[in-house]
Amino acid sequence: MREPAARTYARALPVVPVRARGLTIEGADGRRYLDCVSGGGTLALGHNHPVVLEAIRAVLDSGAPLHVMDLTTPVEDAFVTELLRTLPPELAGHARVRFCPTGTDPVASAVSLVRAATGRSRVITVADEPFPDGLFPRDGEAGQEPPAGLLLEPVRSEAGVFPAADALVRHLRARTAEQAVPLVVDETGTGVGRTGAYWAFEHSGVTPDVLILAKAIGGSLPLAAVVHHEDLGEPGEPGDSDGAGAAGRPASPPAGGPGASGTGAFRGNQLALAAGAATLAHVREHRLAEHAAALGGRMLTRLRALAAEFACLGDVRGRGLMAGIELTAPDGTPGTPGTAARLAAAVRRECLRRGLIVDVTGPGANVVRLLPPLIVTEEQMSAVLDRLADAVRAVDRHRPDGTAAIRAGHGPR
After folding, report:
1. Roughly what angle, to the nearest 10 degrees, separates helices 50-62 and 270-285?
2. For residues 238 and 323, which has the higher predicted lDDT (pLDDT)?
3. Per-residue pLDDT tens for 86-101?
4. 61-66 contacts, C-beta under 8 A, 24 or more apart
5. Looking at the predicted structure, is the pLDDT value of residue 405 above 60?
6. How many whole angstroms separate alpha carbon 194 and alpha carbon 190?
7. How many beta carbons lie within 10 A of that of residue 258, not counting itself?
8. 45 contact partners, CB below 8 Å, separation of at least 6
9. Cα–chain-centroid distance for residue 221?
10. pLDDT > 90 in the chain, percent
């Protein structure tokens, strides 16, 4: 009653969480739920993981400042060191790290960076395949100049979970390199093992010039950063501590080594840096990216078998522990506007009744999304998929649009 209507989760998921651990949330009513939203992918290790809590308590008990701006601290240095350890050597050895507030700020910071580095203004976002090469004119060709940068999401999660083909990513890397166009990869929702590789760009074997990082890197607390190759320089003037192009200062600066700078008043959160460093290290040391690849592959196989059974389920997409199941109109065609969205909402509602929290995404609000934490076990995943399958069967029997259930006659996708 006191908060804005933009709180969409609260309207769709009437759960009041009071305790949480790992994959499980306990509501104020005493019911327990399996959480396959994971804070939109923020909770790589699930709720209240012991290594995250220990890292936070260590900072609190140390008496260290909880918030500083642009001052090197042991906590920040440990985070930067662990972050660079996870990156390809060709980037890590020449990296600068710019801390940012969360939300859209790291994207804006990355855009400002490539614009300043190239002197050009146009930044292209990859949203469709195949990508039009005409946007990269060759030397001597007529037409517009190359863009300032090319922005790519390895998986367009909010758009309905669309992984970019590895061949496309390699092609775009080759074309951007030819034209000296910085390749910016947005790992906000895909980084830290989510897709079955520590960073999703690693699937294609390329190395970007700029990385946008958020969500999981904070270990459940707000943290975002832009990592870029030092050749792109440092936009802004030294001492401009609050502007969008602030240069800041190097962090832990060996000659030619990593640096850190950023924008906004809340980029020095020491608790987030500590929780993030603990999360990055735990995922690396326990090979959770490999776990996500193996378990995620089995998850997608079972989801595709389920889609083959019901006509209301369309395409199944995903990578690692990130999956989207598209809901379709009753006859398997696009149908009338809103029909598929109502089916997706019905599946989410039936899942909740069975103690499973799932997400709905995509521009048509017709894709049920699963984002279990990387620590999910095979037994827990089986329980998740059993509850989801039961929810789909319930929706298929009692369609919200009043049509009869229609079983699919197609094979697995």
Report:
1. 140
2. 323
3. 999 999 999 999 998 7
4. 64/270, 65/270, 66/269, 66/270, 66/271
5. no
6. 5
7. 23
8. 51, 52, 219, 220, 279, 282, 283, 373, 374, 375
9. 14
10. 70
Residue 162 near residue 129, CB atoms below 8 Å? no
The two beta strands, 356-357 and 32-35, are: parallel
Q: Return the ∠ at Cα 137 (arms to 133 and 143), rounded to 5°.
A: 115
pLDDT at 13 (0 to 100)? 77
Per-residue pLDDT tens digits for 289-304: 999 999 999 999 999 9
Q: CA 48 to CA 38: how far, in whole Å?
A: 11
pTM higher than 0.70: yes
The more confidently predicted of residues 193 and 254 is: 193
How far is it, in rounded angstroms, from Cα 40 to Cα 26?
Answer: 18
Three-class SS state of 337: coil
- Residues with Cβ < 8 Å from 83, sequence gap 6 or more? 97, 213, 217, 225, 227, 277, 280
Q: Which of 306, 230, 226, 270 is nearest to 65 (CA)?
A: 270
- Asked whether 120 and 147 are in contact (CB, 8 A), the reply is yes
Interatomic CA distance for residues 302 and 290, integer angstroms: 19
Nearest C-alpha neighbor of 124 from the set 204, 197, 179: 179
Greatest C-alpha distance within the chain: 70
For residues 49 and 282, is the Cβ–Cβ distance under 8 A? yes
Higher pLDDT, 3 or 261: 3
